[in-house]
Amino acid sequence: LNYVAGVASVPIYLGGPAHIEQIFVVHNEPMEWKKSLPVTPWLGMSNTSDILEDIAIGREPDSFIVSLGCVVWKAGQIEVEIKENIWLTCPVSKDVIFDMPVRAKWKGAVKKLGISPEFLSQAVGHA
Question: What is the pTM of this model?
Answer without folding.
Answer: 0.82
